[in-house]
Amino acid sequence: AEQRRSYIKSGLIYGIICGAGFLFLVQLVLTLLLGSAALMFGAKVSSLIVGLIVALIKGGIKGGMIGLWIGYTCGGDTQGLLAGAAIGAAYALITGLIAGFGAFVIIPMVWMALLGGIFGFIVGKMVEGSIGGI
Q1: What is the DSSP letter of 134?
Q2: Residues near 27 by Cβ (< 8 Å), separated by ≥ 6?
Q3: Can you list the residues of the chain whose pLDDT is less than 70?
């Protein structure tokens, strides 16, 4: 039971850190690429900063969910890919339906499943590495 708690804790920590960092970097790159165009159209710098902070929070939450699942299943390639893909697709489905994408929600679901699967693989490897170190 103590070892299981250690795996879950490792998964949660790695997931939050990696998820927040990953989404923050993606948001930062998009902001830098589109920032000059956005500023030309009157977007404020403060709204870009708020967007980066929101990316940190959302990434941490999604990464934490993936990390918890991977930590619970004790890492590994398959668990990480499945956890990331499932949570990514579910997240895209829920947000897509709330936003009213309708039938077009399949596109973000596929993208989020792919990105989530890759991300879950990375977190799974990190959890697996921490398990090997125990």
Answers
A1: -
A2: 51, 52, 55
A3: 31-46, 48, 75-76, 131-134
Query: Which tokens hold the place of 70?
Result: 């991977």
6 phi, psi to nearest 5 deg = -65, -40
User: What integer pLDDT is reported at residue 46 of this predicted model?
Assistant: 66
Burial of 49 per CB tally in 10 Å (0-12, 13-18, 19+): exposed
Burial (CB count <10 Å: 0-12, 13-18, 19+), residue 71:
buried
- Residues near 60 by Cβ (< 8 Å), separated by ≥ 6? 16, 19, 20
pTM of the model: 0.69
In Å, the largest CA–CA distance within the chain is 57
- Count CB-CB contacts under 10 A for residue 77: 12
CB neighbours of 119 closer than 8 A, spacing ≥ 6?
Answer: 18, 19, 22, 63, 66, 84, 88
Give the pLDDT of residue 37.
58
Tell me which residue has tokens 């940190």.
Answer: 56
